[in-house]
Design a protein that fits this description.
globular
Length: about 230
């Protein structure tokens, strides 16, 4: 719909520039109950002539939907990434070292039932922690970290087997793990380092800034520090 509105707006501007000012005035004050009167017919004819004189490349540019949006302050905003079945199918089969296996295992047990974006989001949290001095600086260190009451990622110490029994799901999360390790931009969670499922309400959530909700998970990051002037 936004694309159609864009095209209509561009063509309306073209028409406005193509017709003389006197014709524009008649059009704005027309009160023809029959619909398209002689004046409108003439204007549409002028529009047709104006469009016919445009170079093909210019006409194509006029009818293209914008690829980037602008914020209220005029800055370009990148289009949101699309992570769907086609994106996943385009990713190569993945394998790797111990760090890759730790990330693949974490995505499998924490998010394999989530949409692709939800799986990527959990991976972002893990890598955001690796980048944060408050957490271990390796993927395996992050996913195996304890918090005094158990493990940060509960699957790791729940007493159950950590074997990836669903081979198809394991292959999917493996592709995602490899894409993240290879530098997939972390754009979904806005720097989140925590998440929880909607059916739990941990007390710590009150101390953090909520960034987004994807699938069944809500994501949080540390609130910015407030500097108090001395």
């Amino acid at each position: 719909m936004s694309g159609l509105l864009h095209v209509a707006g561009r063509l309306a501007l073209l028409l406005l520039l193509a017709v003389p000012a006197s014709a524009q005035t008649v059009l704005s004050s027309a009160n023809d109950p029959s619909g398209v009167g002689p004046t409108l017919a003439a204007l549409f004819g002028q529009e047709h002539v104006a469009l016919a004189t445009l170079p093909a490349a210019h006409l194509e540019e006029l009818t293209q939907e914008p690829q980037q949006a602008f914020s209220l302050f005029g800055r370009r905003e990148a289009a949101a990434p699309v992570y769907d079945a086609a994106w996943l199918a385009a990713q190569p089969e993945a394998k790797g070292d111990a760090q890759f296996e730790c990330l693949r295992q974490a995505l499998y047990f924490e998010a394999r039932g989530e949409p692709i974006a939800g799986q990527i989001a959990v991976g972002e949290v893990i890598l955001n922690r690796v980048s944060d001095p408050a957490f271990p600086n390796t993927i395996c260190g992050v996913v195996k970290q304890s918090n005094g009451r158990g493990c940060q990622f509960s699957y790791y110490c729940d007493g159950r087997s950590d074997k990836l029994g669903d081979t198809e799901a394991a292959a999917r999360v493996g592709k995602i793990a490899r894409a993240l390790i290879n530098g997939l931009p972390r754009q979904l969670t806005e720097g989140a380092t925590f998440f929880h499922a909607f059916w739990v309400r941990p007390a710590w959530r009150l101390d953090f800034e909520r960034t987004t909700q994807i699938g069944v998970h809500t994501f949080y990051r540390k609130p910015p520090r407030t500097v108090v002037a001395g």
